[in-house]
Design a protein that fits this description.
Blueprint (H helix, E strand, L loop, with lengths): L11 E4 L7 H10 L6 E7 L3 H4 L2 H11 L3 E8 L5 H13 L4 E6 L1 H13 L27 E5 L11 E6 L4 E6 L7 E4 L9 H20 L5 H23 L4 H20 L4 H12 L5 H18 L4 H10 L9 H13 L17 H12 L12 H11 L2
């Protein structure tokens, strides 16, 4: 086991049911010492959930309590594009906003990182993106401080400096981030997640699961990332079916939210693998595909690729043991546990064909995955060629 790690996270993480009620006091305390300004860009999605269920109103009340002015920007969509990032950044500039308050699920939290950067820097977001057609420039100015309020359990972006943004013109979906863009304050209140519909609870929960399972098989695994990843995997595997079955099951919501937020930490300690690169290619070409759904579609064959090559047998066994097979002694048990979890959550019959995928695309997707987020292929426990990557898509196709 690798005993070396580098962990630095300046985010003040406030986790627990009812913690949204503390937002105003935490912001006021930061304002008192000058780490946050007086005016915020309140970034939300273009959907209706935070308005319908009163979450937006509650956040607005907390900002008023902290004597913070704010401007609401409600333009973020699923698989957010660089165009909406630039629109939100322009709104922050035009309204002289001092910091970002990101209220929402993974799309909003991911976007906040890019919006914070582009609110203070010249040019286009793709000037600063590494990979694909991105120009890979360094930021000229520090980004705006970010406060995150998670309303779903999936990405872990509430506590890290990364967001995944799409460029629809080039069919690219690439991670963007800099260490200095780590949120300064994060509120994770599982009560806010009780209204997420069952289907999306499952998709988001599996996204969180795969963040942790990919860390477990990554070349960069270390004693700390393994310890907390296994804890997250155990909680998600045990409680996600309950959260899907009954959204008001607060104990289940808490456990899944824990697993998701922990993933945001594990990914700072250890990279994920090419499973995420492959799904980003899928949703770069098929924008309506939810990220978690895409990951589910390819997950079994992706794991089988490494199991057949005995690339990291012990890691799969460790995961199987915390996923409900305590006496596991073979890596194939991980697939057994994964398939059961998918069945228990009602997502075992997802089909690529339902989202417009055709078999002729698989090599295009494989090449795109490596060109846009090739660094994650380097974290795989053994090499994977483009042809082998395309074969995983082919075997996953229904």
């Amino acid at each position: 086991m690798n005993m070396n790690f580098n962990f630095n996270n300046p985010t003040n993480l406030i986790f627990g049911a009812g913690k949204l009620n503390e937002l105003g006091s935490h912001i006021a305390a930061r304002r008192a010492v000058g780490s946050l300004g007086k005016k915020a860009l309140l970034l939300i999605s273009n959907g209706k959930s935070v308005k319908t269920y009163g979450t937006l109103e509650r956040v607005e009340e907390q900002l008023k309590e902290a004597e913070v002015e704010y401007v609401v920007c409600a333009n973020i969509h699923e698989n957010p594009s660089k165009e909406v990032v630039m629109e939100a950044a322009a709104a922050a500039k035009e309204n002289s906003c001092d910091f970002i308050v990101a209220l929402g699920g993974g799309a909003v939290l991911d976007s906040a990182v890019a919006v914070a950067a582009m609110a203070t820097n010249p040019g286009d977001l793709w000037d600063y993106v590494n990979g694909g057609t991105g120009k890979g420039k360094q930021l000229v100015n520090p980004g705006l401080p970010i406060v995150t309020i998670a309303t779903s359990s999936g990405t872990g972006s509430e506590v890290n400096c990364w967001g995944v943004i799409s460029n629809h013109q080039t069919n690219e979906k690439i991670g963007f981030g800099y260490p200095e863009l780590v949120p300064v304050l994060a509120i994770v209140d599982p009560e806010l997640m009780k209204t997420v519909p069952p289907k999306y609870t499952a998709y988001q929960g599996f996204d969180a699961l795969f963040h942790n399972t990919e860390v477990m098989i990554s070349k960069g695994i270390n004693i700390l990332s393994e310890t907390i990843a296994l804890s997250a995997i155990e909680n998600i595997a045990k409680y996600l079916p309950r959260a899907v079955a009954d959204g008001n099951d607060l104990e289940a919501r808490e456990a899944v939210a824990y697993g998701s937020t922990i993933a945001g930490i594990t990914m700072q300690l250890t990279n994920t693998t090419a499973q995420h690169s492959m799904e980003h290619a899928m949703s770069a070409y098929h924008h309506s595909l939810p990220h978690g759904a895409g990951l589910i579609m390819i997950s079994v064959e992706f794991a089988r690729f490494f199991i057949e090559r005995h690339a990291c047998d012990e890691q799969f066994i460790k995961m199987a043991r915390v996923m409900g097979i305590p006496d596991s002694d073979k890596p194939e048990d991980f697939i057994t546990a994964l398939l059961k979890l998918q069945r228990d959550c009602g997502v075992d019959n997802l089909k690529m064909s339902d989202y417009g995928f055709e078999k002729s695309e698989f090599m295009t997707l494989a090449v795109n995955a490596r060109e846009t987020m090739g660094g994650l292929f380097l974290s795989n426990p053994c090499p994977m060629s483009d042809e082998e990557c395309a074969e995983i898509f082919s075997k996953s196709y229904r």
